[in-house]
Amino acid sequence: MAVISRGFHGRRGPGGDRLPPGQYLTEDFPVLSAGPTPHVPLDRWSFTLTTAAGEKHTWDWDALMSLPSETPQADIHCVTRWSKYGTRWRGVPVDAFLEGVDPDGTYVLVTSYGGYSTDMPLADVTGGRAWIVHEYDGAPLPPEHGGPARMLVPHLYFWKSAKWVNGMRLTRTDEPGFWEQLGYHAYGDPWREQRVQGD
Ligand SMILES: Nc1nc2c(c(=O)[nH]1)N[C@H]1C(S)=C(S)[C@@H](COP(=O)(O)O)O[C@H]1N2
Ligand SMILES: [Mo]
């Protein structure tokens, strides 16, 4: 069996398999965007966390850079059936933004420049399972892959990893995001093939 390096965040199936059901492996890195790529200059970039009570906390680019970063490696799985192993990122764990904050909610709606959004339980982006990443493979994250910064939630289908992230709104009930309103599954676990509502 292959050695799993520190910081590796792949999940395995019940039989120890690495490829979730219905997926195929790709070596390249496809770009999937529902609209045009927004270009956000770093001096105008910000990220705002809004608690369910409406309290706001904002970080600009310098503030993001001053937070301790990690270098997660992860397998990623797109609902259009491609998977890519061992992608390498640098970013700030979502836990860092929640330190000292009373979330007052148990779900999160992640929002992006350009209007994209996606929802998931707060527990899925905390506990070292999600990051706001700003480097891919040792270089600044390219705009087409979500730069300046994107969400990385590798244990869910990749549509949950919002590109061009600009905020996170905590909610008390699950509010469907862009694809979820169009019929994609509310949770999106690749190992349970939760592609669309009803799966
Ligand atoms: N803002 C935004 N984030 C997004 C998307 C999008 O259209 N807009 N597409 C999602 C989907 S469906 C996938 S598979 C991944 C694709 O990321 P990539 O283009 O870096 O491969 O981004 C996700 N995040
Ligand atoms: Mo996707």
Automatic annotation (TrEMBL):
Sequence ranges assigned to domain Oxidoreductase molybdopterin-binding in this UniProt record: 35-179
SUPFAM superfamilies assigned: Oxidoreductase molybdopterin-binding domain
Endpoints of the signal sequence: none
CDD domains per UniProt: arch_bact_SO_family_Moco (cd02109)
Annotated region described as Disordered, given as residue ranges: 1-22
Any Pfam family: Oxidored_molyb
Entry-linked Gene3D superfamilies: Oxidoreductase, molybdopterin-binding domain
Domain of life: Bacteria
PANTHER family according to UniProt: OXIDOREDUCTASE MOLYBDOPTERIN-BINDING DOMAIN-CONTAINING PROTEIN (PTHR43032:SF4), PROTEIN-METHIONINE-SULFOXIDE REDUCTASE (PTHR43032)
Name the UniProt record assigns to this protein: Sulfite oxidase-like oxidoreductase
Annotated source species: Streptomyces odorifer
